[in-house]
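Internal tracking record. Fields below are filled automatically when a chain is submitted to the structure queue. Please do not edit lines marked as system-generated. If the sequence contains nonstandard residues, flag them in the REMARKS field before resubmitting.
Queue: standard
Priority: normal
Entity type: single polypeptide chain
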Amino acid sequence: MGMQVSMVIDLNKCIGCQTCTAACKSLWTDEKGQEQMLWNNVETKPGRGYPKEWEEKGKKSGWKDDKLLFGGLHPDEDFGGEQPLNHDEVYFQGTEDRLVQKEPMTYGANWDEDTSSGDYPNNYHFYLPRLCNHCTKPACLEACPVRAIYKREEDGIVLVDQDKCQGTRLCNQACPYDKVYFNHIINKSQKCIFCFPRVEQGVAPACARQCPGRLRFVGYLEDQDGPIHKLVNEWKVALPLHPEFGTEPNVFYVPPVLPPAFDAAGRFSDEPRVPTEYLRYLFGSEVDQALVTIMQEMERKKEGKASELMDLLIARDWKSLFNIKDVKVAGEGVDHRPLLG
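SYSTEM-GENERATED OUTPUT FOLLOWS
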């Protein structure tokens, strides 16, 4: 079995600036038929996400009891569609003074952005960056009848062979995360490629490299000395999104720790601001212990004690987010170029 390049995203650092989205969009999806494709997007949670209600459709896709499920295809309105403006009237005909939408919007990628849930003063929201998980058991790969989708042995990146793809869209139906898009112009499926041309040159993916918050760690899951292995396998604070979908994602999340809720007297209480039940819905039952570990280590740091976990997550040296040299697997040294970006 080969290596698996992975990503850990610390949700406590994400400010929803969409820099990662812009970096990905400008680099990879600026061609015809890719208007609605956001290989990387940042959602406000709780929220319907992009495409709309992808989590509800995800329950009908992915793996269940080792059986592959196929959810329904998302219609165009789940993306929001292109919103035409009155360019001609303003810029060429001179009959109108300002740009306006010709038709009202019904949905869009950031439709629920900064929309809180709960009641004031205990309302809450947080940001969730999403991209293809480059799963260990990719449902899209299994669903493809022409074997156009494959997982690279050297790094575990999942790709769609554009020469082989015949546009059956079964991969679209099988992916529970709705992260395989369909290009209607060329009649082929397309998705995040984990910036593999950059990775091959030792450069971090655009979404991670351009992130101003230092919240994305990139490296090999097998690197026993790297931050990915420590956060996922040792500290166990980085968890997959919706593990019940059964695809074994290789993008992991450090759950958000918001200030506690206020009590009736306006003082901080022992109740979490983000309901733990909602975090369990997103990340599974292991989130309970992950939250305990994070808060314990935060207290250690406040007391002036050493905390490897907090030092990892703070990432004072941004290059440490991407450094994966001298990977050790099963006791053997494997030399990989560092992803220094």
